[in-house]
Amino acid sequence: MADLDGQKVSKDYHTEVPFSNQNGFFLRGCNSLDWGMKKHMSNIFNPKSGNTVMFAFDHGYFMGSTAGLERLDLLLPKLAPYVDCFMGTRGAIRTCVPPEVTKSVALRVTSGSSMLQEDLSHEVVAVNIEDAIRMNADCMAVQTFIGADGQLSSLENLNQVINAGMRYSIPTMGVCAVGKDMARTDRFFKLATRIIAEMGVQVVKTYDCENFEEVVAACPVPIVVAGGKKLPEDEALKMAYGVMQKGAHGVDMGRNIFQSQHPIEMAMAVGKIVHEGFTDKEALEFFKDAIHQG
Ligand code: R5P
């Protein structure tokens, strides 16, 4: 058993020093990937800004019909022009995203839990690599529970998907799940994001937290940040601006877009922060003007 008691709590994050092994490619940690992987990553992350607005609508995979996502067939085509990537299940994407929409796809490939259970940390790999290839997925999203009951099986799932992805040059996105007993501390997120990155994923999805810049600095692949529970728009934009300032490569936002009274305008405002360097205040003004102009 490793001696954890004496483990040094490192403070040498060098948050002011840019990621160094980046020669020749615009995304951290992707320099040594092959052409196919880089192509998928460039579909997800805009090579000009280096960032992405991922729209997460995979909530139905464990929550069923969620407020704001009742009619994916109506919402998704309207949002398409304002986001870079659609993150959803194969069921939702096949049925409700017209194939003519050329946005990148983050395909959720694990499932196994539902809101009816108390412990959501046990999942399986539900989508095989052949179907991910058929769907032209740009990455495969795997729910990963560190420090929860399901840790071993979720790391098994994660590695199974990474191994398949490496065979066919499809990136894997490790989704850092917060188990019911875990606190959303920077200590937890530093541990979880780093473990997920060291398994070999190409993207990590996580949450905002205190000292988020240190979480980013210690994670050698791009991080996208989930929006979390619905907040007033000004607070959601502030969160998005904050994480971008601290080194995130974008957001993977769901409820703060689809539960807004104005989802299209909200997606546009988030895009202004992620791609154009707007501050949260500028993005809020933009959001209000866009609503006004109808
Ligand atoms: C994560 O596991 C969920 O399925 C969502 O994709 C994620 O939480 C992002 O959505 P939201 O911004 O609503 O938190």
Question: How would you characterize this protein structure?
Answer:
The chain has 294 residues and is of the alpha/beta class. It has a domain of 187 residues: TIM Barrel (Alpha-Beta Barrel). 40% of the residues lie in helices and 15% in strands. It has twelve helices and ten strands. The chain has an eight-stranded parallel barrel, surrounded by six helices. A two-stranded antiparallel ribbon has the order 4-5. Helix 8 links the parallel strand 8 and strand 9. The longest helix is centred in the middle third of the chain and has 18 residues. It is globular, with a radius of gyration of 18 Å. The mean pLDDT is 94. It binds ribose-5-phosphate (R5P). Ribose-5-phosphate binds next to strand 10 and helix 10.
Secondary-structure topology with pairs:
Layout: H1 35-44, E1 52-56, H2 60-63, H3 72-79, E2 85-88, H4 90-96, E3 104-108, E4 110-111, E5 124-125, H5 129-134, E6 139-145, H6 151-168, E7 172-177, H7 186-199, E8 203-206, H8 212-217, E9 223-226, H9 233-245, E10 250-253, H10 255-258, H11 263-276, H12 280-293
Parallel strand pairs: 1-2, 1-10, 2-3, 3-6, 6-7, 7-8, 8-9, 9-10
Antiparallel strand pairs: 4-5
Helix pairs in contact: 9-11, 9-12, 11-12
The chain binds ribose-5-phosphate (R5P).
Residues 56, 58-59, 87, 143, 175, 226-228, 252-256 line the site of ribose-5-phosphate.
